[in-house]
Amino acid sequence: MPTPAGASAPEPAPGPESPDPESAPAPGTPTPATRTPPAAKPKSPARGTFASLRNRNYRLFAGGQVVSNTGTWMQRIAQDWLVLTLTGSSAAVGITTALQFLPMLLFGLYGGVLADRYPKRVLLFLTQSAMGLFSLVLAALTLSGAVEVWHVYLMAFLLGLATVVDNPTRQAFVVEMVGPRDLRNAVSLNAANFQIARIVGPAIAGVLIAAVGSGWAFAFNGMSFVAPIVALLLMRDAELHHVERAPREKGQLRAGLDYVAGRPELIWPIVLVGFVGTFGFNFPIWLTAFVDDVFHADAGTYGLLNTLMAAGSLVGALLAARRGTTRMRMLVGCVLLFGVLEVVAALSPTYWLFAALLVPLGLVGMTFNTTANSSVQLATDPAMRGRVMSLYLMVFMGGTPIGAPLVGWVTDTYGARVGFLTGGLVSVSAAVVVGLVLARAGDLRLSVELHGGGGRPRIAFVPRDHQRDHQPEKVAAAA
């Protein structure tokens, strides 16, 4: 990833990816690639899918997160089903989701300022403790039989307030645990961690809801926050990659926005993330509607559909963990394919076809999400990372209060299929528009070869002024 103009790039750890400058050949000396046949070139050691787990602090963090994430997914399933049970409305589920993400839209950028200004371990200790407490309060209300829908709305909003600080802090803390060299791998493993919990959590939640009700799922989530809190306390401060904190001064919020404004390698991933997050990722609304109105099933089926999507997402996250580079055209292609899959799923005539399509949907969606996340982090100056990630998350999650009620209304008014179809069409449109803008900015044209290399069709953007040159061009400093 190219370093933005005016930004200082994180220094990579010594190793095969960062050779010693003193060992470079003198001008005019043949390069090693010239002197040595390709077969004789020394190979760089493989990074491996789990390279970042060699860091003890990150191992503790990942272990705590898998427990907490399992509880989080249990609460999500139980919360959606409880609201649907109390109200019978998909729009009410959308309102709950919107209230949970509304604080990110309103205050998300301030969370990034705090993440850059204060010690991240301390902030995470406070936010994780608060989220555990809110979940236990909701559990007590539900188990006592006193719960009303406004209680769920209030707890969702309070959880959202905690995530305003927790999310950008947790995202920016990853590089302090693993260093810039393992950042892309760690971001992908975080996503894989989340998807493992997404497989286990809904399955457990479905059993608990059917057997004893939603309250115990909330209670488990509240207790699960003990694991990340203990992990934070056990970390070794000396092994962290310390980043200089931003001083307390005026104008830090505006400085973060100005920093992003002139960098296309940050702007375009954030634009795509905004459209997909606002309109394409409203699965709690669509899946509850399909289960209840189309397939006439129960909470167990809802949990199964979430598990299938999580399985695909887990594969996508593990594949992303092995990827060393990212190109902008890959992000655009992922969003286009994601939207097409949503359209096909919305129109699928049978339950099993619908369920099967959730696996590739999860894979493509997670590939886009982790790739965009790591690309933005690696292109950002360490001192700005909290503010940039807060903007990223504000756009990704903060768009939900706008998209969720709208999608919920469309789903209630016109049916589950039309609601799902709408999200897919918006994602396809966003990919096409951004792709055309980038192609125009790079003076490219679309090249379609029905008999490309190896006899396979090939589609790529190539320079307009070199009609016979079929090498894809870098686009807008981000390809």
Structural class: mainly alpha
Strand content: under 5%
Q: Specify the number of helices.
A: 17
Distance between the termini: 9 Å
Low-confidence segments: 1-46, 466-479
Shape: globular
Radius of gyration: 23 Å
| Biggest sheet statistics | 2 strands, antiparallel
Order of helices and strands: HHHHHHHHHHHHHHHHHEE
Query: What value does the average pLDDT take?
Result: 78
**Helical proportion, percent range:** 55-70%
Count the strands?
2
Q: Order of strands in the sheet with the most strands?
A: 1-2
Characterization of the model:
The chain is mainly α and 479 residues long. 69% of the residues lie in helices and 3% in strands. Strands 1-2 form a two-stranded antiparallel ribbon. A hairpin with an 8-residue loop joins strand 1 (444-449) and strand 2 (458-463). Helix 2 packs antiparallel against helix 8, helix 3 runs parallel beside helix 5 and helix 11 runs antiparallel to helix 17. The chain is globular and about 55 Å long. The chain starts with 31 loop residues before the first helix and ends in a 16-residue tail after the last strand.
SSE arrangement:
Elements: H1 32-35, H2 56-87, H3 90-117, H4 120-143, H5 149-178, H6 183-212, H7 215-224, H8 226-234, H9 252-261, H10 264-280, H11 283-294, H12 299-321, H13 328-347, H14 351-378, H15 385-398, H16 400-414, H17 416-441, E1 444-449, E2 458-463
Antiparallel strand pairs: 1-2
Helix pairs in contact: 2-3, 2-5, 2-6, 2-7, 2-8, 3-5, 3-11, 3-15, 3-16, 4-5, 4-7, 4-8, 5-15, 6-12, 6-14, 10-13, 10-14, 10-15, 10-17, 11-17, 12-14, 13-14, 13-17, 16-17
